[in-house]
Amino acid sequence: MRILIADDEAIIRIGLKAMLEDLGHDVITARDGQDAIEKAQQRLPELAILDIEMPQTNGLQAAKAIYKKRPLPIIMLTAFSDEALIEKASALQVHGYLIKPVEPTDIKAAISIAKQRFADVQALEQEKLKLQKGLEARKLLDRAKGILMAAGMDEETAYQAIQKEARNSQRKILIVAKEIVMNGGL
Q: Are 32 and 80 contacting, i.e. CB atoms less than 8 angstroms apart?
């Protein structure tokens, strides 16, 4: 994987880079949160590991900005196991949390979990969009039936009229329903 690491401490960056490269990853390093945001846009990493406490733009701010522009798995890194920081990280789209010093086995496990959590979140987002589109379609169809029912049809007859128009005009039923809503009838 192409992994972005951001830490304001050079020794930590070097150590993380070596660990990740030993695990077979391509590593992009950043010296602070702002540098991480810029490199995320330029180099398109597949995962980011961000130190929480950095000057100028901290890791939480960087995580939010990076995820907003281009969602990817993000692991927060800190020397502190502060509950307030954990809560702030939990409120963002963060998929893992590591406490320094980090061992290779810890980072390997965190990457695996972050990738899976990210995939799960993406699948849920896709399902949510699918359900929203289905609900919008259902509402549109119900509105079109309501217009036809107001003109004297019962619900079943209104639905059949929409289906028949769609079939006869070789258009999708939702296009016909939208047209009914826009025109106030067939």
A: no
Residue 174: CATH number of its domain:
1.10.10.10
Tally the domains of the chain: 2
Q: What is the mean pLDDT of the chain?
A: 92
Give strand ranges (E) for the chain. Answer: 2-6, 26-30, 47-51, 74-78, 96-99
Range of the domain at 21: 2-102
pLDDT digits (tens, 9 = 90+) for 131-153: 999 999 999 999 999 999 999 99
Instruction: Report the alpha-carbon distance of residue 83 to residue 103 in Å, rounded.
Output: 22
Tokens 């059949």 correspond to what residue?
A: 160
Place 86 in a pLDDT band, splitting at 50, 70 and 90: confident
List of residues 6+ apart from 141 with CB closer than 8 A? 159, 162, 173, 174, 177
Bridge-based pairing of strands 74-78 and 96-99 is: parallel
H helices within 49-103, ranges in order? 59-69, 83-91
